[in-house]
Fold these 4 entries.
Entry 1:
Amino acid sequence: MPRVITNLCQREGSCRIVCPVECIIPGTPVDDWPTYVIDPDTCIDCGACEPECPYSAIYPSDEVPSAYQARGGEILCAKAGTAGFNDTYTDVDHDGEEIVMPATRVLAEGEIVDLTPSIELNRAFFTEGPGYAAL
Ligand code: SF4
Ligand code: SF4
């Protein structure tokens, strides 16, 4: 079972540094692929990336919550233009590079969010998206 990066990712890059098989890359273009993504065919499920994530965005693929209950304050991202995702998130990543996420919103305490679509998004990036050429 590979790990999956969910839309709680804020693209700061810590997971990519520790992956022993280099199967984590930033999704690009960010408008369409706002999170970092894990190639499920290359991931050896070692678990090293999961504790590195400061936003607890990484799960084993069979444990991605369909009803994630927000603590409040988490930033959820989506494709650019998604209704309700009206905030632009900016920061600096692990390497000092600027992060710009054009479609985000802040979760309210107790809000329930289905994170399982991320399973397919990670896979799709490497099969239908630009990830195949990127690896
Ligand atoms: S579980 Fe291990 S192999 Fe898979 S993405 Fe994370 S660090 Fe890489
Ligand atoms: S460590 Fe977490 S927030 Fe940082 S790039 Fe990886 S999944 Fe995204």
Entry 2:
Amino acid sequence: MTPASPAAKRTIDFRNHHHLLLEWYASHRRDLPWRRTRSPYRILISEIMLQQTQVARVTLYYRDWLRLFPSFRALAAASKRDVLQAWSGLGYNSRALRLQSLARIVADQQRGRLPADTILLQQLPGIGKYTAHALGCFAFGLSLPVVDVNARRILTRLFSKVTAADEMLDEKCAWEIAASILPRDAAYDWNQALMDLGAGTCTAVNPVCDACPFTDRCSSSHLPVLRLRSVRTPRKEPSFHGVPRRIVRGNILKILHAQSREVAELRSSLSVRLRRHELLAVLSAMQRDGLIEVRKLRGRILVSIASS
Ligand code: SF4
């Protein structure tokens, strides 16, 4: 992404415009299950699931997960196998194991409660600045900015005339602006509204400026360049014979959920043909990530889902 001009002012008096987005949100808000709770555990689960998975897919898994693991303690006590099984289909399975490591720390050392402090939150596995602020604002009611990719895109366009649809303020600048314009008494609705606006109106390409509450206030409103898809070459994903590595890993876990397999059996069950050395390399990385166990038995290599 091209960094937008840092000329955008970082201290902005936006008080007269807060009502535009907040009124829009009152009639356009998405009804999402994690917006009906203030439970730090439930909000954390949604945030981790949403990190690399789309909203529609997460809504399919969210309730089942909470039924199986209703608290940090329940998640901490579960077997890895059950955790990975429940996560199966959401992708990027290491997130599930990091979540369980976090649950074990919270259950063992923090009496089953998350700290209401963004610095302490960021010391837990899998929690970066975005997730810490999302928890701070959505679960603990703190007046904090929350800058995901949608919010960053909107802030970029609002305060600078962009020259490409994928132009983005640098991250530090985006957080500073977000903090500067945050309505302190309506932080929750404001942050959720930015996410909704970015998801359906100020989209990456072809934003619907006519339907946007900021249309008369935005520096990039109706710019023709926003209708053009970037010609940037997408970052190449590691893959085998055209199939992304993460898909291969998901395929391996799915097979192993049914039963442990010997390497040759596993190889022939995969939907993509891997050479033996390629499969061994994938298995070795998955073992390092704690997803599977590999053991030798009478000259055979047996692979199974991590159990404890
Ligand atoms: S006016 Fe258009 S470019 Fe500006 S924030 Fe709204 S949708 Fe995005």
Entry 3:
Amino acid sequence: MGDSTRAVHEAEPFDEATGSLITPIFETSTFAFSRAEDVPKAISGEKGYTYSRWDNPTVRRLEAKMTAFEGGGDAAAFSSGMAAITTSVFAFIGKGAHVLAIRDLYGGTFSLFRHLLPGIGLATDLVETTDTGALEEGVRENTKIVYIESPTNPTLKLVDVARAAKIAHMAGALLLVDNTFASPINQNPLGLGADVVLHSATKFLNGHADLIAGIAVSDEPKAHAIKMARREFGGTLDPLPAWLVLRGMKTMALRVRQQNANAQALAEFLSSHKKVAAVHYPGLKSHPQHALARRQMKGFGGMLSFEVRGKMRDAMRFTESLKVASLAASLGGVETLVSQPANMTHTQMTEKERLLTGMPDSLVRVSVGIEDVDDLVADFRAGLAAV
Ligand SMILES: Cc1ncc(COP(=O)(O)O)c(C=O)c1O
């Protein structure tokens, strides 16, 4: 099936018991049994349900839909993207483990690897993002996880996913990939050799900026390990937001295609503007990894960033002058959002760490929505005129 057909129909047959066309919301914390002998099967996860922190039929449908989209064996849904990331990481590390990651990471993930894991005695290294040679040199005997994002947040750098998978596997480690920025419409890391794909479902999957959710997709044994860790860490997704993500996903293919097209047009407009010092978008021929983007991505995505020529306050002037786009954190929704990583999404980093990853004060990140592209270009033109 194609992406649009799959988005509408995958894992969502009509409800046999009632005829309900739409997936029911099983908003229940627990499940009752008429036969006590059925309990062990439900507890082991083989058949039936026990308790909604463990498993729930509405949440299951979201997991099945995402399993199909990412080409995995199973999935685990979480109450946030960070819950999906932390639980998946903890599912595969143990005493004495080493985690190797790229330097350009979402702020929360950066903090997990930079502060939280070292704080409990686990070794981590963050290395240069675009050079897989740095990953090759960075793996150790005790490396259990190689962790990457591609494209990265907020500078849209790419990591060669297939190469990173080979490096991880040669070292006996797993490759975990945060695919939030691309969405499954534009990139499928499992097909490139990754072991676990992570999403902040808050973003492109749901697409409507009205909830927080996350998901991890992998083969069946790894998903089982993640689900077992989820039982203990407890960051399971509630059935109501799971249902909202399912509803949002029905238009995911349509939305993302529009976002891809709008982002390409906006990136091209910004590239030719004299008040813009640099534009980062994998769909631009000038992007240093454009050839890699063509190889491993099906579309170039709805995210871009650019440097306003000037200082922090010049970029602030731009963001507050916009009329169609809003100044807000988060991404992947139908509305265009702009943010300044230096004072919003990446405050966990020191200035030195930010500059090392190419994130000056004047950098503006754009999550391109589905509005008419002419309105977006006009809005950005007026915003730059105000600088
Ligand atoms: C790339 C990326 N990964 C993970 C997350 C964390 O997701 P959540 O906010 O749903 O916990 C975010 C949030 O912005 C993100 O941008």
Entry 4:
Amino acid sequence: MGKLDGHVALVTGAASGLGRASAQLFAAEGASVVFADLNEADARAAADEAAAAGGTSAAEQIDVTAFADCERVVAAAVERFGRLDILMTCAGVGDTAPILELDAETFRRTIDVNLTGTFLCCKAAFPALARQGGSIIAIASVAGIIGAPGFSAYGASKAGVLHLMRILALEGAASHIRANAICPSWVWTPMVAKAVERIMPGAPAEMAQAYLARQSPLGRMGTPADVARAALYLAADEGAFMTGQAMVLDGGLTAGPRPL
Ligand SMILES: NC(=O)c1ccc[n+]([C@@H]2O[C@H](COP(=O)([O-])OP(=O)(O)OC[C@H]3O[C@@H](n4cnc5c(N)ncnc54)[C@H](O)[C@@H]3O)[C@@H](O)[C@H]2O)c1
């Protein structure tokens, strides 16, 4: 028996990285899962992979910055699978630069996708989740908890996501909608590979990975599976008493200063 048998999940950013791994674990645990992403072809491939492994899945294109898209995809999930119990928002962009090199357009776009996009998906899903109660899981970041040079747009967007989850936990409680965030530190995904290429052009991936692993006291990066397992806890009955919180998955990175 799966932990999510009979549940329906919608995961944004499900074509790649953390969203893909989480959506696939949800499907493996018995949920019917809608894989939604701007990149429709990769979302479909991820959904097909879940189906080939015995899961129930569908794929939808979504631009999370467009409310009409968010509403359409929620409606498609409900039409296809009859209900919506879980919304996981993983769609995101990760451009970073020091303030003098960060243009206003990149700042706005980062807030638009990471923060406004999360808000719009939640707003679209709220009525369907409220029918029987449900779980919202937003991927924030340790960058929304601690500052790091170059992360003004990204960090501000993720701090906003954390606070948005607290507010939605309060607004959703009467309808048994829980809302939580997951704050990962570094996980090697296409987003991070792209950021590393921008910051350290030409650096071999293994060198960058070793550097990022050393940032955490546990001495390794996170994995998509670490994040997927945390998301499963929040999506399933185990997480039934948790709402308005941030689950930090960082190998101890934000626990305090490292020994000298
Ligand atoms: N990888 C990390 O180290 C890390 C750490 C903390 C938080 N995060 C967050 O996790 C989430 C997933 O990131 P990832 O590392 O898996 O990156 P990724 O680039 O592998 O996946 C991000 C996905 O979001 C999709 N996307 C981008 N803009 C979109 C839009 N407007 N509408 C719909 N989909 C859109 C992309 O197509 C892509 O499939 C992001 O919110 C990211 O900020 C990542």
